[in-house]
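Form P-L/3: holo structure prediction, ligand NAX.
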Amino acid sequence: MTTPIRVAVTGPAGSIGYSLLFRIASGSMLGPDTPIILQLVEIPRAMQALEGVAMELDDGAFDLLAGIELYDNPNDGFKDANICMLVGGMPRGKGMVRADLVEANGPIFTGQGKAINDHAADDVRVMVVGNPCNTNALIAMHSAPDVPNERFTAMTRLDQNRGKALLAKKAGVSVSDISNLAIFGNHSNTMYPHFFDTKINGKLVPDVISDHKWLEEDFISTVQGRGKAIIEARGASSAASAASAAVDHVRSWFTETPKDDFVSMAVPSTGAYGIEEGLIFSYPVRCDGKGSYEIVENLELNDFAIEKLKVTEAQLKEEREIVKHLLK
Ligand code: NAX
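OUTPUT (holo model):
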């Protein structure tokens, strides 16, 4: 039997975790031939609930699930992990603004970054879902100096998925007809879904959808505000769709991206598109199927797009400023 891949997940007793773990165990993320050991990392007071989740995982009788390990600390929880999915974190409480959220989560990701540095497998790949995910990934990356920077990513795949679904509905086509939708920037309401290079059955979106006002205003604001709209409708934040996007993110990372398409991931900026190097910025990327990726750098952005990139970059710089004492 192939050696199992060790997948560590934080926040597994939470809402996203409850959908995510079963998708991972079923093989949706790493394929039907890859056995998995789940290393579930919670805070001590959630361990009892986590035991219940582990019982349900047992009851799923997943062929690929070679082990379930429960931990109440990241040092043990990330030991030998090949993939770390950092989902858990401090939720935004009543009256908290984004800056409070950034500040409250910072120390969690310092500790987790250090634990990854010291205990995870040499080939570890990290994806951050817990918000503010770009800045949390930045903190974890800075706390793990022995792990190559490009191994740290944050999730904007849910935004890409939301944008694709919206375009498909508008154009009356299926989601699989949509390609090349890039999400740029922060996973927040400043993100920029870049539709000018997006294709519907090979044709550029602005040539297929004639309502350009809708594209430039409603499309962008709907993708940016979708998280809030879900909270208003459901009374709770997106969970199943976020879990599904997390599965997509990791699967894409280990799958060769078709030459004529790309996927969106927040990764350390190399300076591409004039964005400050080192910020965790969402870009269109192409993955090589072996766990490496390259930023797609050849999109010709117009002034409209460049302006949007500047706004979201500025927000990431502000967030970085708040946590600068945590960055080494
Ligand atoms: P929940 O509050 O349901 O669950 C969070 C879980 O994390 C809890 O079980 C909690 O005990 C655990 N936790 C807290 N601190 C921890 C720590 N230091 N180590 C390990 N576990 C810890 O939140 P849920 O709905 O599951 O959302 C999780 C995170 O995803 C939130 O930060 C949320 O904002 C973020 N999201 C990110 C999205 C994205 O696209 N990047 C979209 C969905 C979601 O909003």
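COMMENT: Residues 10-11, 13-17, 41-43, 46, 87-89, 91, 108, 129-131, 133, 155, 158, 187, 227, 237-239, 242 surround NAX (CB under 6 Å).
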